[in-house]
Design goal:
It is built from 23 helices and 27 strands. It is of the alpha+beta class. The strands form 7 sheets. It has a 7-stranded mixed sheet with strand order 9-8-10-11-12-13-14, with helices on both faces. A 6-stranded antiparallel sheet has the order 24-23-22-25-27-26. It is globular and about 85 Å long. The relative contact order is 0.08.
């Protein structure tokens, strides 16, 4: 499908627009029912959404009649047409509800009409199919089976009854796209699964007990959990299913396989499994993470043992957030980023709550306080564009502004220590709490960063716990850069407060906030500061998703990374930095070259790497900007060893340091007129598979792309 031109971009996101049917057609199954004079119901899709008869000035019913697959998006939404904006909005709404498809050849005859209709209805949830014939062709791919017990035989019959092409997994035969491994005690089954997994085949584990069924995890390549990881998480398995439950369990697995094999499933089973449990006639369902506790194959570095429950939960969190390759699952929830609730959350700004007569503002501030406000504004504040829209200065996951700023003011004249809150909308510091002066000999002002984890979890779930700390690291980088522009050195530290009352305030709000770092403001002079050059750099910074060219040599990239690398003052933080193993992938003229970070601060060719351009058997990244970017930086870390030696607090600090490093690097490349964009959807399993075996135990904690600024069309 040809990409939409920028003029006809429906959402403003190139990845979303590329996945949109170029000649949209309303599904044949959809019927339009009139509820009353003002509303219509579209029946026959996955749901029955209701829409008004008019979208602004647009007649909805008349527009639906035009969606017959003969007109392009450009023809349907041309600017000269009446209601062009409303036409785009309605098309996006129809796609969101799974009611559009791309015209194609008839569905293969081997697929019954009911299954073909079902696949068409779920195509909106996948990023690899636009036509039901494409989904049907994927559905008909052979599925192999492992196991020899009773349930394996029952499941094989049920899958064939659903129209799936089921074959036996024969030794030495090329692996199928999908293999089902029924864990029923068959001799040598785990070894067979390991061989398939090492060959890059997708293996879905299925296990049954007397009153429960586990579906998953889906095993991919080297960077996924293994059967040993699953057994450690799920406990003993057997083939003790009762005759009465066989049809129920087989039906549940069949449903999962229909979705998985066609690339239409709305859920990920990578490092996760779903447990179905019968209890007094009631069927319950729960999802469980599977931590990567064992590396696939004989890696030189084994995954370190995690001996604390809190540390195991951290491993589970990162394992659960793994993104499956497109060829295995093909799913991305496009609407997640653009859901109305998330758009609204991005526009919510902290509002003032304190007494305006007691705040510190630029009008009432002393010279040190003015510098303090100038610094925190450039790390945690907002600017308004020509249209009056507020824009966060510092990048933030989902544009949610999870990193928030507090200030500890040790007021020597009044012998009081005050906790102040920075309110970026009004650009002032308002008082929250105070106590008798403490911390003799310490700096008068300490800038404190807290991660608003509750806010970011509303969109990203448990991954938001990590993302909030990464955002806080970006704030540290921007604060350091602002201080350097003002002629001062400032070093953030993750060490907690010494004062018990300050520590208690943060700890009592730990369900909502997570302490990230603090930094003492040095004594400053009253000399004015020239901010114009630094502010121009901040204003030009933007997240660019289409950086397919890069005019920067690898030695220069290495120099910028050395310049940007955090230099923590304490030994523990320095040890955490040594646990990082950055990997850089540079693509030029269709050729990918992989480099690894050396201890002396150089980028050296990575021996044994087989990374190349994305292809059918190698989809390193789930997001389009990652798969096409000229520069791709992966922050790999020995997370298990970090948790084993430093515990959860070390993990939090490592995330802050990664954010600080990438934030500083982003500003450095911006000064070279390059652009960058964070990315959270790297396919860790494919990445680690194409790196040397010594990397099999690592976890990808963050990814960042960069390159030349995209050319803009006039």
């Amino acid at each position: 499908m040809a990409s939409l031109t920028p003029r006809f971009a429906l959402t403003g996101d190139a990845e979303l627009d590329d996945a949109f049917p170029s000649q949209p057609r309303l599904l044949d199954e959809v019927a339009v029912a009139a509820i009353d004079d003002t509303r219509l119901m579209l029946v026959g899709g996955l749901g029955a959404p209701v829409v008004g008869r008019r979208f602004g000035a647009l007649d909805v019913l008349a527009f639906l009649r035009q969606l017959d697959g003969t007109r392009t998006v450009e023809e349907l939404c041309a600017d000269h047409l009446a209601g062009a904006y409303e036409r785009k909005r309605l098309l996006c709404w129809l796609q969101q509800h799974g009611l559009l498809e791309q015209p194609a050849a008839p569905t293969p005859a081997a697929l019954d009409a009911h299954t073909g209709a079902f696949l068409a209805k779920v195509m909106n949830q996948t990023r690899i199919h636009q036509r039901r014939s494409d989904a049907a062709a994927a559905f008909l791919r052979p599925v192999s089976m492992l196991g020899s017990g009773r349930f394996r035989r029952e499941l094989s019959l049920a899958l064939r009854g659903c129209g799936l092409n089921v074959v036996d997994c024969m030794p030495g035969a090329p692996p199928c796209h999908m293999t089902i491994a029924v864990l029923d005690g068959t001799t040598g089954l785990d070894k067979q699964v390991a061989r398939l997994q090492a060959a890059g085949a997708a293996v879905l584990l299925v296990s049954v007990r007397a009153l429960s069924l586990d579906v998953g995890p889906l095993l991919a390549n080297r960077g996924c959990c293994t059967t040993a990881c699953y057994r450690a998480a799920a406990g003993a398995v057997d083939d003790a299913c009762q005759a009465a439950t066989l049809p129920l369990w087989a039906g549940i697995v069949c449903n999962a396989l229909v979705l998985l094999n066609s690339g239409s499933t709305p859920f990920s089973l990578l490092n996760n499994f779903i447990r179905y449990q019968l209890d007094n006639g009631h069927l319950g369902c729960s999802t469980h993470p599977v931590a990567r506790l064992h590396a696939l194959g004989d890696a030189p570095h084994a995954i370190a043992a995690v001996d604390r429950p809190a540390s195991l939960q951290r491993l589970e969190r990162h394992s659960r957030a793994a993104v499956p390759p497109r060829r295995m699952i093909g799913v991305k929830s496009y609407e997640q980023h653009y859901a109305p609730k998330n758009i609204l959350a991005a526009k919510q700004f902290p509002l003032p709550h304190g007494d305006a007569g007691k705040v510190i503002s630029m009008a009432s501030a002393s010279p040190p306080q003015r510098l303090l406000l100038q610094l925190v504004t450039r790390a945690f504040g907002y600017w308004s564009d020509a249209a009056g829209n507020r824009r966060r200065i510092c990048p933030s996951g989902g544009n949610l502004g999870a990193a928030e700023c507090m200030v500890v003011w040790r007021d020597q004249s009044r012998r009081r220590t005050r906790l102040m809150r920075y309110v970026p909308v009004v650009d002032w510091l308002e008082p929250l709490a105070e106590a008798s002066l403490d911390g003799a000999g310490q700096a008068e002002y300490a800038i404190v960063c807290l991660a608003n984890t509750e806010k970011i979890r509303q969109k990203y779930g448990d991954f938001g716990l990590s993302l909030g700390l990464l955002d806080s690291g970006f704030g540290a980088a921007f604060l350091q850069a602002a201080a350097l522009a003002a002629g001062h050195a400032l070093t953030p530290t993750c060490q907690p407060f010494e004062a018990p009352w300050l520590r208690d305030i943060v700890e009592h709000r730990r369900h909502y906030y997570n302490f990230a770092w603090r930094a003492d403001l040095p004594c400053v002079s009253a000399a004015p500061i020239e901010w114009d050059r630094f502010d121009r750099l901040l204003r030009q910074r933007s997240a660019a998703r289409d950086c397919s060219e890069l005019d920067l040599a690898v030695p220069d990239i290495a120099a910028l990374l050395r310049q940007s690398r955090p230099r923590p003052g304490d030994r523990a933080a320095a040890a955490l930095m040594s646990s990082l193993h950055p990997i850089l992938v540079i693509e030029r003229a269709g050729v990918c070259v992989t480099y690894q970070w050396a201890d002396e601060g150089n980028l050296l060719p990575c021996p044994g790497s087989t990374l190349s351009r994305d292809g059918p058997d190698q989809e390193l990244l789930s997001q389009r900007n990652l798969s096409q970017a000229a520069g791709r930086l992966f922050m790999l870390a020995d997370l298990s060893r970090v948790l084993h030696t430093h515990g959860p607090a070390g993990h939090d600090q490592l995330l802050v340091l990664i954010g600080q490093w990438i934030g500083s690097f982003w500003l450095a490349i911006e000064s070279r007129r390059l652009r960058g964009c964070p990315a959270g959807a790297a396919v860790e399993s494919d990445l680690l598979t194409h790196l040397p075996p010594s990397c099999a135990h690592l976890f990808n904690l963050f990814a960042f792309t960069f390159g030349n600024a995209p050319e803009t069309t006039q």
